[in-house]
Fold each of these.
Amino acid sequence: MSCNWDKRNGRETLSYALFLHRQELQRPKRFRRLMAIANTKLKLTDELIRLQRCQWKWQAPSEQQLDALLRERQYRDILKHNMQQHQLKQQRKRRQCLEAKFGRNNRQQQTRF
């Protein structure tokens, strides 16, 4: 299965969306729920930023609008960073569990020989 991002219109292809969905299903339930909420926040913030920038094509932004956009961008960047850190933490925890589980089995097999 190919995982593609359609660069022409900046949207996910069906195969890529299915790939992401499968990746989400492999995560623990609580983690999936939290990540789904964070992902929704991220998409809404990105959409808000995009709409603001589109408005500015016809009308120059005020100082307040620029400040609001800066705050939205900072929020988006912090949210992305926190999501990435949480994913890394989950991956490390999963790796440690696997190493503990399979490392114990490997040590037992090595002592038999």
Amino acid sequence: MAGLISVVVLLVLSAAGAYAAAGPAACSAIGALCVGLPSGCVDTNACDVLAVVSPTPTGVHVNLTGKALGALKLSLANRWIAVGFSESGGMLNAPVVHCLEQGGKAIAELTFNHPTEHFNTGPAKIDQSQIKVGKTSVDGAMLSCEADINKKITIDDKVFDLGTTKHSLIIATGPHKDGTIMAHDVDPGTSAPLMVTF
């Protein structure tokens, strides 16, 4: 059993590297779902912002990367990249994993897109024990965060069950001001109509 767990962990940890080397077929081969920006970039293996999301035995592994000066000409200073888990295919009422550059450091946190209005509520009122942050890094060329989240996430007394309810992935990027998430400045991407359980 320990050997099987080790293999699963190695596959999950190598998900982003496998995608970068082999494109979207590698995501499927390791049981990951990938979504990126600009739109259509997953098919061409040319994403400036990429989320590689895969199930683990106890949760969901998220690997977010953003690169500067690609097709989108992003500056990574005071920038966030994020992937949301949507039951509707839209941005509202969705738990979100944010990765942001703040003061020269990469920070990952669990946030929430408001259920009826187009804004992100931030991490302050969300139990951050539902996310375990792994490796994070930022330099002038790349921003990246790895994190594991619970399969069941509770926000404002609502339970989002990623293991039994189908979700699509929504990916977006934009600026932040002193850690406050501002509106995205690039049109978001989505895995919809593809919706999966993790």
Amino acid sequence: MKKNIGILLLALSLTASIPTAAYAANPTNEKTQNYAAPIEEKEDSLRSIRSELAKSGATLTLISEDEYYAEKAKLTNESIETVKNRDKLRDSLSLRASDPYTYGTISRTETLVDGKGAKCQIRYGFKAKFYSSGSFHEYKEILDKGFVIASGSGDFDWEPAGDIYMQIINNGWNVRFMASGVVKATVDSTLSAGFEAAGFSLGGTSGTSRVYRNYYDIHHNF
């Protein structure tokens, strides 16, 4: 009898150490399915491109793949699905077929006027598709439509003198950006001294408003 009890206790002990059937049949539990990479890991993958941009005061704002392709589809007058499928087929044939791409708006801000109560800045940049991991990054594509936006203490417009020129250079490490145009500022007369001191020319008046203009060239390597 004692021998039988000992055998029974040993069997119960072994059974308790085995995972339940329900858990064994579901190795992909809820925690695994909802797993998302920590913010620190995502940020570390962008370390290279953020570091390069920071050298000249430029910034990166991440956008979704859908937002990127919605913008690209507008430029090509095609459906989003058509453009995306064509790109995915092309990417599957590249050397980096297994690498995930990131999408973002790259921009830089320059101050043209900042004194005597007056302020004027221009922000310029582009949307891009790129690969970035640790100490390496590479621009895969930039959308043809760059942007230049003027802002400040008044109403501002950027009047382009021609098309924006952009080119991926240095084996994908940088993007050259070039644009020329006129910054048109409609401001209160109390701000006139600040704009005139910065080299803006008076182009007209209307009541207490003054219209100033300044031709500006942008040459920058992101």
Amino acid sequence: MTETKTRCENGELVYSLLTLLVMAGAIFAIAVGVPLVFAVFDEDRLRMTDDFAAMTSAAIALILPLGFVEMNRLLKRARDRATAEVEALRQELAARQAGAEPPPEPCQRGDRSGLAASLVSRRRAVSTWVVTSIVLCTALTLNFLWAAIDGHGPARWLAWAVWCSTSWGLSLVLAGALGHVLKESSAILDLWWEADRTGAAIDASQVDRRDGAH
């Protein structure tokens, strides 16, 4: 039962990571596609302006702390999971060395392959945020550099780079928030169905008792 639960948790983790990337990719595609449509059909091309630099800098400054918080959360959960696994293995090793019989069911120890899959998935999620943070910091620095240049021009390549970087960061934040909402909603729905099934079982047992009494 424990092994099955561990595998289910790992499957949900991988599913959550894939869902996060898919949702972020979809939002990013829309954000990049809109200015492309304007450029092709209306000839409204992106260019750097003081307002654009200020707004994107503010957005990046908001995204970066959120990314650092998310990375810290992922790393803490991975560390707690690995620590619990190592502690359980140490207790089992000590029991074997002392000649005691190890527990027949590994209730305190999860599946090692499941632990590896869990850590790999979290590492990929953290790596995604690390790369995103580097890209955002680069875009923020280029924004500062453009603003500091005397008589700065349109710098259309920079406008596209900053727009894509900011759009991807916002997409990742929004996808993460939506993923948490969907996960909690699913958990609440599961609890509701469990409560409904438990109530139905209680009612059925009461009916059986009354029938047995008669």
